[in-house]
Design a protein that fits this description.
This protein has helices at about 20-25, 30-40, 55-70, 95-100, 115-130, 155, 205-210, 220-240, 260-270, 280-285, 290-300; strands at about 5-10, 15-20, 40-45, 80, 105-110, 135-145, 160-170, 175-185, 195, 215-220, 250-255, 310-315, 320-325. It is an alpha/beta fold. Strand 12 and strand 13 form a beta hairpin. The protein binds acetyl coenzyme *A.
Length: about 325
């Protein structure tokens, strides 16, 4: 069986930065509270004038991944877009991105698995490559969470951000690449985090975001308590499946929800925080985009080297959670 290797990564973030100080003017909160409880300092918000729809951001991230890989769009067999905030109910963000990047030989679709969407997509792509059904698969995590955020709810609006990340996977005979993927869900707890409505249009200005009628609801405390053991247990399972010890992992790229969750997972796993890549300080929680966005930054910053073992671990709405073990080969 062939192996699925990551051959390119890319990301894209909206230009407009919304700092904790900006949020102090929108809801009753403070930079001190947000930083202490979450680690987040700022996030990016998509604006119409900047052409920053979910599909725009996803297309930009995808192009960067293809450029890095030196693979042209006509060679892409499949596009999977992990998202909870597509621009339209239909068609999929996948098909919109397919048109934008002119990947006319691909099959494109969206995958909805909350913040774990990217790890779910990795499993689908890996299986398709291993079965010989695809040679080149583009996985994109793209989100415009500002479109489903309740800007009057201080307990959630301070957490979320917009952005996109992409990876290009290619079939190769050489061992390595995606070593294993593990995904789980528990629908009994779906009402701990949900959004009801379709996405309204991009706002014309920052003021516009506060008037969006919409609605995301979250029980943060209960989610926190679910997230920590779920992430730690599935990460341990993933390592055991590959016969790897904790010290064999050079970098953990977790879903970027909250620094305190990551510190608790780090303690449970006894993997030091220095091995956890975090960029939630700059972007907040970008749901399905957070892992590929972090992976692209980590690789471009030189934090991941050829031969390194990288552990991905996620948790999100659904509830969903997952892990993957990679051996980096670029
Ligand atoms: N600014 C100031 N005060 C606030 C804010 C805010 N933005 N938000 C809440 N508070 C207040 C509350 O009203 C409460 O006040 P009270 O004590 O007078 O009632 C107090 O702060 C404490 O609130 P808690 O909700 O208990 O605070 P907690 O320490 O649990 O932190 C948080 C809240 C950050 C949401 C945390 O629970 C969390 O991160 N949970 C996990 C959420 C998560 O991981 N979601 C993502 C998983 S799924 C996905 O990624 C989409």
């Amino acid at each position: 069986m062939p192996f699925a290797h990551i051959v390119g990564t890319g990301s894209a973030i909206p230009q407009r930065i919304l700092s904790n100080a900006d949020l102090e003017r929108i809801v009753d909160t403070s930079d001190e509270w947000i930083t202490r409880r979450t680690g987040i300092k700022e996030r990016h918000v998509a604006m119409a004038d900047n052409h920053e729809s979910t599909a725009d951001l996803g297309s930009r991230a995808a192009r960067r991944a293809m450029e890095m890989a030196g693979i042209t769009a006509d060679l892409i067999d499949m596009i999977i877009v992990a998202t909870v905030s597509p621009d339209r109910i239909f068609p999929s963000a996948g098909c919109m991105i397919q048109r934008e990047i002119e990947a006319n030989n691909a099959v494109a679709f969206d995958l909805s698995a909350g913040c774990s969407g990217f790890v779910y997509a990795l499993e689908m792509a890996n299986n398709s490559i291993k079965m010989g059904q695809s040679r080149n698969v583009l996985i994109i995590g793209a989100e415009r969470l500002s479109s489903v955020t309740n800007w009057q709810d201080r307990s959630t609006c301070v957490l979320l951000g917009d952005g996109a990340g992409a990876v290009l996977l290619s079939s190769q005979e050489m061992a390595g690449g995606i070593l294993s993927t593990h995904i789980k869900s528990d629908g009994r707890l779906w009402d701990l985090l949900y959004a009801d409505k379709g996405n309204p249009p991009l706002p014309a200005s920052l003021e516009g975001i506060t008037t969006i009628p919409f609605h995301l609801k979250m029980e943060g405390n209960r989610l926190f308590k679910q997230a920590v053991p779920s992430m730690a247990n599935i990460a341990e399972h993933a390592l055991a499946q590959n016969g790897l010890r904790l010290e064999d992992i050079q970098l953990v790229i977790p879903h970027q929800a909250n620094l305190r969750i990551l510190q608790a997972v780090s303690e449970r796993l006894t993997i030091p925080m220095e091995k956890f890549y975090t960029n939630l300080q700059k972007y907040g929680n970008t749901s399905a985009a957070s892992i590929p966005l972090a992976m692209d930054e980590a690789f471009r910053e030189g934090r991941i080297k050829r031969g390194n073992h990288v552990l991905l671990v996620s948790f999100g709405a659904g509830l969903t959670w997952g892990a993957a073990v990679l051996q980096w080969t670029i």
